[in-house]
Amino acid sequence: MKKVVLTVALALSSLFASAQLGIVTVEKNSKSTPLGFWYVVNGKGFENQMFFQNEDSLTQIELTSILAENGLDINSPKGKDEAGDLYWVVLDESGYVTYVYLIEDKLDEKYSTITVATK
Q: What residue segments make up the domains of the chain, in order of their start?
């Protein structure tokens, strides 16, 4: 399962203009997260998830690229989760389901996060 998530992450990160060479690993209790890089959290409860945080306009560009690659449109989300965040669903040929969430930063509206979770 981790291989699938990392494969998806690497494929998605190849779309990013800064040509990130890998995924940054952040410890669960870290007080900061990297901006403009895909990252995973090393800790229980974060399995099969990866994140991308940046200024909202740049996050929107990244999200648009991810969704377009999978034949989805940023203006047509699947719905909203319990917290009111938009999400999209990507169905893989292998039977995996990937949820892509756009999470707006509640403390600083200038930033937002993409969360990708594979089940």
A: 2-27+34-118
